[in-house]
Amino acid sequence: KTTTHRSTGIQHWKIISMWLIIYDVFMVNMAYFTALWLRFDCRFSEIPGEYLMAWLNFAPFYGVAVVVVFRLFRLYQSIWRFASFIELERTTLATCILGILHCVGITLFFRRMPITYYVVGIAIQFLLTLTVRFSYRFVLLERSKGVSLGVKKPVSRVMLIGAGAAGQLLLRDLRSSRRAGDKVCCIIDD
Fold first, then answer.
1. pLDDT tens-digit profile of 118-174?
2. C-alpha closest to that of 70 among 112, 104, 101
3. First and final C-alpha spacing in the chain
4. φ, ψ of residue 38 in degrees (nearest 5)
5. Three-state DSSP class for 159?
6. Integer Cα distance of 137 and 105 in angstroms
7. Alpha helices by DSSP H, 76-189
């Protein structure tokens, strides 16, 4: 039974990772399109054709680069319900590397773009990438706050084994969750 449960869990994470990859490829390219659109006063007709074609021709290459860099930074392997500073750090570093790659790649191989295109594109990409990854954790926290406080649940006393990073995350989540009927009474570690 545990093997079936484990394989179902792995399949679930593969599906989530696939959707996340599709989202990333689409959204990072849309971030730069939005930057271009904003640069020309939110008027699509005002965007010069050479800028639009440079963005459009570079988008597939950039999409592949995004997937490769995000995989290297293990942004498709994290359990986002426990997202913390480490994931924020990885996302920030990956976005910086991709921003530099985008600036150099599109400038060298296609066309030099307006400075605001680069700066605003990187900022929007960072926000969109971070938002989708931390929204899962945010929704879980908000959902746990919505549970009625008037109903008393039996509390289980818990001994937490391990005071490392994973233990601290678990302790923080147990303390912040109002739905959990567990109270950590002691923590042991080697």
1. 999 999 999 998 888 777 667 766 666 655 454 555 667 777 787 777 777 777 777
2. 101
3. 32
4. -65, -35
5. strand
6. 34
7. 85-109, 115-145, 165-176
